[in-house]
């Protein structure tokens, strides 16, 4: 069996889900492992395979008591998984606390372990486990230096089938479906959970400009904005399972700089002004965004500098050079991440 683990936030879960979709297309049997309290539990209807949801808790950014609980939950979950792993099983983990138990169980059992690092600066989970892994798959050039050279393979980040399907639509079709006109269209999104800072900024932008737009607030902040755009051409959503349609309809984005968001924007050629989440572990969102800025596919501004007028100027700069920015950001999207991952797994597949 091939076990795929990843979760906690959408950023860890969605690429794991995307890989599972590819594995199934090739009739490779697999199972998913995630966390009971992670986003993967809520979105488990998207999983086309059996999922095991562990009672495991996050470690970073928690109080000392919560950290103890987290460590206990990680070790007890690993011990729970251990007897389930057979020697011929292979594990691929996508980082985060939700995937650590499978990683540890695989190390203890001595079964082949593969890692995918989504970000430019690795998670502690992946860095710890990399010494035991057969290969480490990465999305960003910048992250290569954190792992043993001989193990790193730059594959890019797998993207879910539902997201790729949106590419079949034209911009006009997508806008018609969303009831949007052909005016410049701004997408504002703060990753899988939304971002209060971007939500406030978005409201100011839409009030002051004649951008039409899509504003994804995140579930927690939706109440504040759901009626805020009366008589304005702004579609406000808490969360959508149809991001492909949204990306297709938009000309540019104001966004956090999570790895999946960046990869998806790149796939759709939507350039962005990135305001990285300032408290992301080891500031990884800033380095993610910097790689895109380096390619010419977007601009980056620190949250503390992101006041309305500066942001408007930068958005205007992107909009007036949209074609070049758009072409440049597409260079980041790797054409076939799943294929590259499967090629690396190939020598282990006969073990089934
Ligand atoms: C605050 C923080 O630390 N965030 C991290 C978290 O991000 P986060 O979970 O926010 O993840 P990403 O930005 O990578 O991805 C967001 C995902 O949510 C999806 N989406 C979003 C809104 C919506 O309405 N519908 C929807 O499906 C997007 O299509 C995308 O696939 O994990 C990522 C992967 O390790 C990191 O790069 C991010 O830095």
CATH level-4 homologous superfamily of the largest domain: Glycogen Phosphorylase B
Specify the helix fraction band.
Answer: 40-55%
Strands side by side in the biggest sheet? 3-2-1-4-5-6-7
What's the CATH first level of the largest domain? Alpha Beta
Shape: globular
Give a quick account of the main beta sheet: strands, pairing sense, barrel closure.
7 strands, parallel
Q: Determine the number of helices (DSSP H or I, runs of at least 4 residues).
A: 15
Got a strand count?
A: 13
Structural Rg: 20 Å
Based on helices, strands and strand pairing, what is the structural class? alpha/beta
Domain Glycosyl transferase family 28 C-terminal: 185-327
Function: Cell wall formation. Catalyzes the transfer of a GlcNAc subunit on undecaprenyl-pyrophosphoryl-MurNAc-pentapeptide (lipid intermediate I) to form undecaprenyl-pyrophosphoryl-MurNAc-(pentapeptide)GlcNAc (lipid intermediate II).
Subcellular location: Cell membrane
Family: Belongs to the glycosyltransferase 28 family. MurG subfamily.
């Amino acid at each position: 069996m091939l076990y795929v683990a990843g979760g906690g936030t959408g950023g860890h879960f969605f690429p794991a889900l995307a890989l599972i979709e590819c594995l199934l297309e090739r009739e490779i049997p697999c199972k998913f492992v995630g966390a009971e309290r992670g986003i993967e539990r809520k979105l488990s209807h998207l999983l086309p395979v059996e999922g095991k949801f562990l009672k495991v808790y996050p470690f970073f950014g928690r109080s000392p008591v919560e950290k103890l609980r987290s460590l206990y939950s990680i070790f007890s979950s690993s011990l729970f998984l251990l007897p389930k792993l057979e020697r011929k099983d292979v594990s691929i983990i996508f980082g985060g606390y939700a995937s650590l138990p499978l990683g540890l169980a695989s190390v203890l059992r001595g079964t082949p372990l593969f890692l995918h690092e989504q970000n430019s600066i690795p998670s502690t989970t992946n860095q710890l486990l990399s010494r035991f892994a057969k290969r480490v798959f990465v999305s960003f050039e910048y992250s290569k230096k954190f792992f043993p050279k001989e193990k790193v393979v730059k594959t890019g980040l797998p993207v879910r089938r539902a997201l790729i399907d949106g590419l079949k639509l034209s911009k006009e079709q997508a806008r018609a479906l969303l009831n949007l006109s052909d005016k410049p269209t701004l997408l504002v999104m703060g990753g899988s959970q939304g971002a209060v800072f971007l939500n406030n900024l978005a409201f100011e932008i839409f009030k002051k400009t004649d951008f039409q737009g899509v504003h994804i607030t995140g579930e927690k902040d939706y109440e504040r904005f759901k009626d805020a755009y009366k008589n304005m051409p702004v579609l406000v959503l808490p969360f959508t399972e149809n991001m492909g349609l949204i990306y297709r309809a938009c000309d540019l984005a104001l966004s956090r700089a999570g790895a999946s968001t960046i990869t998806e924007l790149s796939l759709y050629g939507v350039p962005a002004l990135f305001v990285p989440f300032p408290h992301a572990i080891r500031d990884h969102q800033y380095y993610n965004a910097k790689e895109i800025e380096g390619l010419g596919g977007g601009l980056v501004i620190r949250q503390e500098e992101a006041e309305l007028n500066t942001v408007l100027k930068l958005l205007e700069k992107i909009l007036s050079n949209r074609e070049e920015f758009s072409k440049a950001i597409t260079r980041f999207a790797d054409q076939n991440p799943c294929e590259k991952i499967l090629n690396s797994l190939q020598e282990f597949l006969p073990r089934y």
